[in-house]
Amino acid sequence: MRIFVTGGAGYVGSHCVRHLAERGYEVVVYDNLVYGHRAAVPADVRFVEGDLGDAASLAAAMTAGRFDAAMHFAAFAYVGESVEDPLKYYHNNVANTLILLNACRAFGIGKFVFSSSCAAYGEPEQVPISEETPRNPINPYGRSKLIVEWMLEDSAAAWGLGSCALRYFNACGAAPDGSIGEDHDPETHLIPIVLQVALGQREHVTIFGCDYDTPDGTCIRDYIHVEDLAAAHRLAIEATEPGVAMALNVGTGVGYSVREVIDAAGRVTGRRIAVEEGSRRPGDPPRLIADARRIRAAFGWAPAYTKIEDIVASAWRWHESHPHGFDDR
Question: The domain containing residue 14 runs over which residues?
Answer without folding.
Answer: 2-172+223-250
